[in-house]
Design goal:
The chain is mainly α. It is built from seven helices and three strands, in the order H-H-H-H-E-E-E-H-H-H. Bound molecules: manganese (II) ion. The site of manganese (II) ion has 7 residues, from helix 1.
Length: about 190
């Protein structure tokens, strides 16, 4: 059966400074993301053993672990690639800009909706920009890694708003983290995901 692997960061740990510090990136990638990869693999191993009759499992519990950890792995893998070193006046262009304007009225209206969603996720989670098969765009909040997710939508831009993503740099000021994060969005990567 398939096993998941921790992908390397597409840049150095300090590449996103001063928006996100090296210390956060080291912990976030090497510890947190690694733990979700491990958790997803452990859940798969349990299912495999249960299928062979080698282990009794609580299926509901194992599937919940799989959903939590695998979504954590998938979302972090997108998150790293959605970012690049900070740029001033960082804006989308090309097809992704056209789609954002078509769906939200303007880039500023989209940015405001997405930022409000990201700052108001209850507890821990994510805000994502996702698309359906006809390239209609949706801003979606996700609690933890897996609750409130809309099945069938493909994430193209994601922000992690768990405290581990910003607390060392921003303490409780999640809004400041979200506001600065726009400088490191890699719009080329977002466009590639359309
Ligand atoms: Mn995270």
């Amino acid at each position: 059966m398939k096993r998941f692997e921790l992908p390397p960061l597409p840049y150095s740990y300090d590449a996103l400074e001063p928006v996100i510090s090296r210390k956060i990136m080291e912990l976030h990638h090497d510890k947190h993301h690694a733990a979700y990869v491990k958790g997803a693999n452990v859940a798969l191993e349990k299912l495999e053993k249960a299928r062979k009759g080698e282990m009794e499992i609580n299926v509901r519990e194992v599937l919940r672990d799989l959903s939590f950890n695998l979504n954590g792995h998938i979302l972090h893998s997108i998150f790293w690639n959605n970012m690049r070193p900070p740029q001033e006046n960082n804006r989308p262009g090309g097809e992704i800009e056209d789609l954002i304007v078509k769906n939200f009225g303007s880039f500023e209206a989209f940015q405001q909706e997405f930022s409000k969603a990201a700052t108001s996720v209850e507890g821990v989670g994510w805000t994502i920009l996702a698309k359906d098969e006809e390239n209609n765009l949706y801003v979606v909040q996700i609690e933890k890694h897996n609750l409130m997710h809309i099945a069938g939508l493909k994430p193209i831009l994601v922000i992690d708003v768990w405290e581990h993503a910003y607390y060392l740099d921003y303490l409780n000021k999640r809004a400041e983290y979200v506001n600065n994060w726009w400088q490191v969005v890699n719009w080329d990567d977002v466009e590639k995901r359309l």
